[in-house]
Amino acid sequence: MSYYWVYDRESTHSPKGFAPFERKRLGEIDLDEVSKRARASKESKPVVELKGYKVLGDGKVEKPMVVKATGFSKSAEKKIAAAGGEAVRL
After folding, report:
1. Has residue 2 been placed in a domain?
2. CA 40, 45, 50, 56 torsion: positive or negative?
3. Position 19 in a domain
4. What CATH number does residue 50 fall under?
5. DSSP per-residue codes, the chain
6. Does residue 52 sit within a domain?
7. Is the overall model pTM greater than 0.85, yes or no?
8. What is the pLDDT of residues 31-74, one digit of tens each?
9. Which of the pair, 26 or 8, is modelled with greater confidence?
């Protein structure tokens, strides 16, 4: 007699004894792209919201802005703060 496991994704148990961990992947965006989005705004300190993205420090920040994102690299946070802006984690 042979036994086999039926794997159900909704179940908390898997055939190997633990539930699989499904990590959410973040998209990556450079500061150049964030600056392009902020340039389109006429506000003195525009707000750029990037849910599900990690902001990377490649590029320049030309004017102060508030960037709301899921994650930031250390260099991106420094460049945003040096330009007079804010880096807010969602």
Report:
1. no
2. positive
3. no
4. 3.100.10.10
5. --------TTSS--TTSSPPP-PPPPEEEEHHHHHHHHHT--SSS-EEEEEEEEEE--S---S--EEEEEEE-HHHHHHHHHTT-EEEE-
6. yes
7. no
8. 999 999 898 888 889 999 999 999 999 999 988 999 999 999 99
9. 26
Flag whether 71 is in a domain: yes
Domain count, the chain: 1
High-pLDDT (> 90) share of the chain, %: 58
Q: Which range marks the domain in which residue 35 is found?
A: 27-89
Please report the sign of the dihedral spanned by the C-alpha atoms of residue 77, residue 79, residue 82, residue 87. negative
> Structure tokens of 76?
């991106």
Say what percent of the chain tops pLDDT 70: 76
- Cα angle 75, 78, 84; round to 5: 145
